[in-house]
Hints:
By secondary structure, this protein is mainly alpha-helical. The protein contains 19 helices and no strands. The chain has helices at 2-22, 37-53, 55-65, 70-99, 101-113, 118-121, 123-132, 139-150, 153-185, 187-207, 228-231, 244-273, 279-307, 310-330, 334-347, 350-361, 367-395, 421-437, 470-473. The longest helix has 33 residues, at 153-185. Residues 15-29, 402-415 and 446-484 have low confidence and may be disordered. The chain crosses the membrane at residues 37-59, 71-92, 104-119, 125-147, 159-183, 189-209, 246-270, 282-301, 313-330, 336-358, 379-396, 416-440. This is Hippocampus abundant transcript 1 protein.
Amino acid sequence: xxxxxxxxxxxxxxxxxxxxxxxxxxxxxxxxxxxxxxxxxxxxxxxxxxxxxxxxxxxxxxxxxxxxxxxxxxxxxxxxxxxxxxxxxxxxxxxxxxxxxxxxxxxxxxxxxxxxxxxxxxxxxxxxxxxxxxxxxxxxxxxxxxxxxxxxxxxxxxxxxxxxxxxxxxxxxxxxxxxxxxxxxxxxxxxxxxxxxxxxxxxxxxxxxxxxxxxxxxxxxxxxxxxxxxxxxxxxxxxxxxxxxxxxxxxxxxxxxxxxxxxxxxxxxxxxxxxxxxxxxxxxxxxxxxxxxxxxxxxxxxxxxxxxxxxxxxxxxxxxxxxxxxxxxxxxxxxxxxxxxxxxxxxxxxxxxxxxxxxxxxxxxxxxxxxxxxxxxxxxxxxxxxxxxxxxxxxxxxxxxxxxxxxxxxxxxxxxxxxxxxxxxxxxxxxxxxxxxxxxxxxxxxxxxxxxxxxxxxxxxxxxxxxxxxxxxxxxxxxxxxxx
Length: 484
């Protein structure tokens, strides 16, 4: 008995020491000022700015490391990362409710950015660590929980919009900067700069970011139990069939987001391989489409929602997505890609419109459950989509033959009838999604309120445990982080 008491005392001392690392004595949060949305914005901007810088060097390293099956390996790497993120997000969300947001912001940013310096040290380790980093690559989940902790319900949608716009802005600027530095000074400097930005982000979290979740709002003890339901990534998906409207929305999201997730993982490689874009042109393409997407989600989305309604906005967005994917699939000229990119920007209105229809029709204390299901499906697509695209490229023998943008020799597949087979598969998937969306009711009122649903914790919906309770659950900016 004496030995057990000593062990318990040692354990309690370790827990207190860990708490002191994150929280000062007296419960005052470490950091600069009070917790604010701007702290979250800086964390997101720096993380994705660092990764955006590597867009051009990563294409070259990927081809050098996997010269035979570049698209297939790219899809598998991102697929493993996405699936691991889907599996780990609920547990990390639940743990952040017990241990606080700051510690998990530090953990997720550190492991997400850990592969960056390995790009020049060891490419094989670089891609291996990228895959494994998916276990912690859930920064957005923790950021949304952070924002939910510090905002009132009526402020939350604006705050989430600011975070999403910051994400888009970081990817608008950084690929162009990385491409310029790569051409002028070489890839090594770009990797060093990206590593420095990632370290700056980690230092910012350590020094400047205050804890958003007060200790008094957490479970009584750091030893508070985490139930399996909280950590189960499939908990939300099992409830999908309990309501017909929710089922229709979830099928719509799955069929439309699956090709989108695959497209984001391979599209820049595709532009270099089939369309023969230079690295500078790829960076310019990302910037232009990003800016147009921001305009579409702010100005155009508001006008459409007021003029044609929520459901019709979803249908219009899906129509734009079908046109965009078909154009990418059949297009073989640069101007076609630019035109399809403008259409792609318009298709980014779909998911904010889906989020709005869920928020409008679900009961306030059940919105978190419903949106948790849809967010879980999105996480699943982040794993399946890249792997599917890579496999289809492999089946049709589309390989990356050269990454030198100065070589204008036509690719062996650029003259094919279907230069981009996966995009056509994606267009067919979105067409099915459009047919399903036709049956989503515009207004269901209480009918969409699934009384049988039981509240649960979902990592992608981790802010449902925040002090604001159920009000925090209903306002997640569903899928907006993937709109650019």
